[in-house]
Each structure stands twice: as structure tokens, then as C-alpha cells.
Design brief:
The protein contains 9 helices and 17 strands. Helix 1 packs antiparallel against helix 4, helix 4 packs across helix 9 and helix 7 crosses helix 9. The longest helix has 19 residues. The structure holds zinc ion (ZN).
Length: 352
Amino acid sequence: MTFLREYINNPSPVGFETSGQKIWLQYLKSFVDTTFTDPYGTAVGVINPDAPFKVVIEAHADEISWFVNYINAEGLIYLRRNGGVDHQIAPSQRVLIHGRKGAVKAVFGWPAIHTRGSKEKETQPKADNLFLDCGARNKKEVEDLGIHVGAVVTYQDGFEEIAYDHFVGRAFDNRIGGFMIAEVARLLKENKVKLPYGLYIVNAVQEEIGLRGAEMIARRIKPDIAIITDVTHDSTTPMISKISEGECICGGGPALAYAPAVHNKLLDIVIKVAEKNKIDLQMRALSRSTGTDTDSFAYSNDGCPSVLISIPLRYMHTTVEMLHKKDIEKTIELMYQTLLTLTPKTNLSYFN
Ligand SMILES: [Zn+2]
């Protein structure tokens, strides 16, 4: 819990994930034989690094954020998205601007309800009308704080526990995945499991801008099997269509997906593991893209049998992403038990 709290509270914006990766590697390193990082900061812990057969368990380390794009004469700061950050939730949020002199506190200013004109014509927040106020009253004062074009901006909201075993946090998408794969490594170590293959525990960067970190590291590792974890939408809260999103609920257990990128035989193995260990599953259908690092691994190199294990989450890409503790535990267990089932001889051929 100490690690989870620290890891979630630490800013890890897309392209600037290093401080989070350091926290993660520090926690992971006693459970693995070796670690390495790649040029853009993807971090990997390895068990049995000399084994020719390679299995990956993967999550992504980056969180959505904003870039400083333009500082006006009055010292107000305009932004550009860094990942799919949500303009609708931005007004009145507190942020940190990560400038050259360290983090600077600022707020998303927004006109008062009294001053916004008639209700019908109310201005909606958009990327090009949202602005930050850091207390500076001209451009020079902004720059004197170390803030520059290209400085990255994250929300201040942190980790919280709320009733009935729910956690609330910023960017559980997908740092909860980083937590879960590290816990799988911890279980393997504590239970003295000897795996018949090399296990690569991968915390990839730059997922939120197009699955890029996974793309790079898949080529470097050349795995034989990849188990990807990410978050998926709880579709039982208001204003979400189950007709388009399918049905999935926090507390209902890990979600598995059918999709062309998801390897059918590997998926069947995971489903059987869940049945055997009495882990409730939720099923989803995805198509052209899973929208996750699964695609990057599946279509890497000569093709890599991949499977996606998702954890249901409410309010994705807001500062109050919500998870159920039981889903975290069950997703860890499902990954762990799946790893115990796999061997280099596991038959994943579609033809025999
Ligand atoms: Zn995301």
C-alpha cells in the first residue's frame, strides 16, 4: 500500500515518466534477477534473463497531462494536450507545472457563474479557452518561475480510499497495471516459483499518445507471449451506453476481451485458469484495435501471441478514477496463475 500510494501520487506525464519508473524499479528490483531500461524510459525487470523462451507481462507507466503552449502578456498560460486529457473536467482544478526550477503550483481559472452571460450561451471548456493562472501577472513573472513552453502540467489530486473497498486516484490508468505486474513478481519471489521461461515485467512509456513505448520494447525483447494489462470502462454509471460499450462493472472481476489482436488459444488458457481458480470474469468484444498495448505486442516482430487482461475502472481520464480493491486482487491472481500454467511447450498454434 505504501508503494501504491507513492507511485500513484507521483506525477508521470507522457514522455516524462522517469521519476515514476525509478519508484517502480526500486520496488521491483528485489523480486527479479535483473532490470534494464530503453532509450525512452520503458523499464523492465527480468526473471531468468538467459532463458530463450520469453514471456512478457506489461502495463503502461505514463499519465495524461498538458503541455505549456503559450504564455500571454498578462501571465496566463495556454495549453496543448499531452495524451487524451479531458477538457470538460479541467476548470477549477489545481495543477503542477513542471518547469526548470521544479514544480510550480497553478490553477485552471474559469469565469464565475455570474459573469458567463446567459445560460443558453454558456461557454464550454475547450483546449483553446482553458488557461492556467500561477499567480504571475506578466510573462516575465511566469518565466522567472522556471515555466517555459513545453513544460508539462499534471493534476495535483492524489490517492484516496473510500467506502466499500474502493480506491480513488489520478491516472490509475494505467499505473494500477504497474502495481499489479510488480505484485505478480513479488508473489513469484515469495512463493519461490521456478518458471521454465524468462519473464519480462514491462512498464512501458508513451501509451497514451499511441502505444509507442510498447512498440519499441516489443522489438527489443522479441517475446514469445505477451500478457497485457490495462483499465477498461465500468459501463454501469450514468451516460454510458451498454449497447456500444458492453457491460462491465467495478467489483465484477477482471475483464477479458475477444479481438483479432488477442490470441484465441492464449485467451482460452486464461479463461480456463480463471475457471479453475474461481475468478469471476467479464467478457468484452473489441475489433480493429484494442486501444491498448496489446496491439503493439501482437503485431510486433513476426507476431506475438498476446492477451489483454483489463481491470474495470470508473471515470477514466478524470482526476477521480475509481477502482475496486477486489478487482486488483483478482487481476493479480489471474496473471499469476496464468504464468504458472504457461511453458515453452504451450501449444498456441491455430492449426493443431
Ligand atoms: Zn488512458
